[in-house]
Specification:
Distance between the termini: 51 Å
Structural class: mainly alpha
Shape: elongated
Number of strands: 0
Number of helices: 5
Helix content: over 70%
């Protein structure tokens, strides 16, 4: 009888863990990201020291949606990219616009590959 209770407990726990995991990858999480940030002036050129981090962030953004990268990895890439831009002297508005541009590039790739409609 103890074994049956333990197996039942493991099944219920596994079910709730699966539900939590599937919620993190649902489309509802990405609907909030549809708002576009508008920056009125021309963006400054991407510094050479930040261009690799920009590519890593775009790949992490893409990978999060496609299921290849975890959300924490995306956040880590975002923070590294943002801190690089800040160290290069970008203002907060320029940082937001540059990050939004990277997001839009990743969304274009996601649409091309069929992950977004």
């Amino acid at each position: 009888m103890k074994k049956v209770i333990i197996i039942f407990f493991l099944l219920v726990t596994g079910y709730f863990v699966f539900q939590q995991y599937s919620k993190t990858l649902s489309n509802e999480d990405f609907d909030d990201e549809e708002d576009e940030y508008t920056y009125e002036e021309a963006l400054p050129a991407m510094p050479a020291s930040c261009s690799d981090l920009a590519m890593h962030y775009e790949n992490a953004y893409y990978g999060t949606r496609s299921g290849d990268v975890s959300h924490s990895q995306k956040v880590f890439a975002f923070r590294k990219f943002k801190s690089c831009l800040r160290e290069e002297g970008f203002s907060d508005e320029e940082i937001d616009a540059t990050i939004d541009e990277a997001d839009q590039n990743a969304k274009k790739k996601l649409k091309q590959d069929g992950y977004l409609k």
